[in-house]
Amino acid sequence: MRGSSLHTAVRAVAAIALLAAVAACSSATGTGRRNIPAGTTQPDQFLYERGTEALNRKRWLTAREFFKQLNEAYTQSPLRPDAKLGIGDTFLGEGSAGSLVQAIAEFQEFLSFYPLNPRADYAQYKLGMAHFRQMRAPQRDQTETREAIREFETFVVRYPKSALLSEVTSKLREARDRLSEADFLVGRFYYRQPWYPGAIDRLTALLKQDPEYSRRDAVYFYLGESLVKSRREAEALPYFERILAEFEKSEFLEDARKRVAELKGQMERRS
User: Fold this and answer.
1) Rounded CA gap, 266 and 264, in Å?
2) Residues 234-261: what's their mean pLDDT?
3) 194: cis peptide before it, omega within 30°?
4) What is the pTM of this model?
5) H runs (alpha helix) in 134-164
6) Which of 18, 196, 237, 242 has the fewest CB atoms found within 10 Å of its own CB?
7) In whole angstroms, what is the distance from residue 64 CA to residue 90 CA?
8) How many CA atoms within 13 Å lie on the side-chain side of 107?
9) How confident is residue 12, by pLDDT bands cut at 50, 70 and 90?
């Protein structure tokens, strides 16, 4: 009898340990359920407020548990769309490659389920940011940069009166600069080879595709120099003049002034 009691006690302890392990695993994976205090009259509001509090404290897993519980248990709650956005924000906040992919899925689903929701502009912005956060260096693959540009451009078209428009246009400029920088580096590489026809083609295409590129002074300079070295001085002159006209500060200003004076002098002598 004593042996049987001991065996039963051991089994009980093992069962308790197993339950504790399961609970810990559930919490670690973000699938735990949060207790709602008895007598809470608005449990969905309780879950949303707790989720928002955890989100603001960057407790991503905890926040996600609250938002998911609201989203799954209170399907008629008016807070469900906001909880959906909260889930996306937790993944975006984590910032890992895997979580950013999940963030994209959450924001895409929101826009699919709630296209007319007052916060649809926010979802579109964050969708663009999930791609923006994955942009790579100019020398590397620019797939995510192009995706970020596409989502930000969609925002500008759909939500021109949004309070987020200024932030979106700023990020859109950064993304376009990243893409244009990749083209510029190729063009400059061709110039340094030297393969001037390749440099001229690449840099001319860059200016056509992105005339507001932030470093276009460098594009003007290397394009102008490539034209000069290709004995196309008349075509080169306007690019050096644009450096002087559009930029008060540039590392190419002094060289551009010298080129303008030199090329104009050559043209006067020929005339």
Assistant:
1) 5
2) 97
3) yes
4) 0.81
5) 143-158
6) 18
7) 6
8) 25
9) very low
Calculate the alpha carbon distances from 136 to 40, 139, 142, 176, 182 in Å: 47, 8, 6, 13, 10
Cis check: omega of the bond before 81, within 30 degrees of 0: no
pLDDT band at 15; cut points 50, 70, 90: very low
The 8-class DSSP code of residue 87 comes to: H
- Backbone phi, psi, residue 44, to 5°: -65, -40
Percentage of the chain lying above the pLDDT 70 cut: 88
Cβ 113 vs Cβ 94: under 8 Å: no
pLDDT per residue over 67-88, tens digit each?
999 999 999 999 999 999 999 9
Residue 186 CA to residue 74 CA, distance in Å, equals 54
Provide the 8-state DSSP code for 37. Answer: P
Give the long-range contacts of residues 198-201, CB within 8 A, separation 24 or more: 199/223, 199/226, 200/226, 200/227, 200/230
DSSP-derived letter for residue 117 is S
Residue type at position 84: K
Q: What is the DSSP letter of 217?
A: H
Q: Is residue 128 within 8 Å of residue 159, measured between CB atoms?
A: no
What single letter denotes the amino acid at residue 222?
Y
Over the stretch 114-144, which tens digit does the pLDDT of each residue have? Answer: 999 999 999 999 999 999 999 999 989 999 9
CA 188, 221, 247, 235 dihedral sign is negative
Contact by Cβ (8 Å): 148, 135: yes
| 3-state SS, residue 248 | coil
